[in-house]
Amino acid sequence: MDTANMKMDTANMIVNCAVYEHGVKLRDITIDQISDELAREGTFVWVGLLEPSVELVKKLQEEFCLHDLAVEDAYTAHQRPKLEEYGDHLFLVLQTASLLDGAVTFGETHVFLGRNFVVTVRHGASRSYTKVREHCESAPSRLAKGPSYVLYSIMDFVVDNFQPIMDDLEARFEAYESDLFMRDSGTEHLQDLYQLKRQLIKLRGAAVPLLDICNQLLRFHSDIISKDGRVYYRDIYDHVARVTETSDRLREMVAAAMQVDLAQITIRQNEVVKRLAGWGGILAIPTMVFSLYGMNFKFMPELEWHWSYPVVLVGITASCVYLYRRLQRVGWL
Predict the structure, then answer these.
(1) What are the tens digits of pLDDT across the range 59-80?
(2) Is there a contact between 28 and 18 (Cβ–Cβ < 8 Å)?
(3) Measured in whole angstroms, how far is the alpha carbon of residue 187 from the centre of its chain?
(4) What is the dihedral sign for C-alpha 317, 321, 322, 326?
C-alpha cells in the first residue's frame, strides 16, 4: 500500500482529534501534535477513532503514554464491559447496542481517560458520537469540567440507546403474547420467543456491568473524576438500573410465555391422539366383523342367507355412526 492510501485510511480511522480549553474547542489537531497540547495547562484533548489499525493505536500509545495491556485490549476488541486503572489514566470497555432491521446488534467502545485527555475507540455496530460531541460543545460550562464530563456524555449516550431497544423488545413480546391464545401453529412463535429471550440476555449482559463501573467512578478515581462531576454518574446508574429491571421482568414474562406455548403444543398433540383413538375405536367395529366373517366356515349362521351382506353393512354403518356421535359429544372428535 502506498503512502497516499495509508494516509487516507488513517484519516478515515480518526473521526475527531481536537483540543479544548475552558469548555471551548480551540482547533483540530493532528496525532503528532497531541503531546505538545498535553503539555499546556488548562486544556484537554479529545480523540475519536473508528476501528483503528494497530499502527495508529501504537502511535496514540506514544502520545498519551498508555499502558501496554490497555492498548492491546483496544485494538483486539471482543472484551467484556469493565473499568481498569493504569497509573494516571483509566481504561473502560462499554458494550453498545443498536437496532438493525429489527435485530439487536452489538458493538464496543473503548475509552482511555486521563486528567487532560479522553480517547474513544469504536468497534463493530456502534453509533457515531458526533451528536455527543456537538451536545458537549454546545454547553461550554459543562464541558469545562473536562474529560470526566465527556465520559459521562458518552456513557449516557450508550445507555440511552438501550431504552429504545428495550421498548422494541417489549412491543414484540406484547404482539406475541396477544397472539399466543389465538393461533393454530404451536411452533412459529416459540422460536421467536426464544430469540427474544436471547436478545434480552445479551442486552442485560451489556447493561449490568455498567452498575459496577458507575459505582467505581462514584467512589474512587477522584484525581480524574471531579467531585462536582460525580452527580452525573448517579444519573447513569439510575438509567441502567431501570433498563436491567425492565429486562429481568420481561425475561420472566418471556419464559412464562414459552411455557404456555409448550403447554398448548402438548394440548394440541393430546387432541390429535384423542382423535386418532376415536377413529381407531370406530374402525375396530368393521375390523372385528370382517375378521369374523373372513373365516369362511360353510355352516356359519347366515352365511348362505340372501340378505346377510347388506344387513352386516347396515349394522356396521349404524354402529360406526353411533360411536362417532358419542365421541364427538364428549369432545374426542
Answers:
(1) 888 888 888 888 887 777 777 8
(2) yes
(3) 22
(4) positive
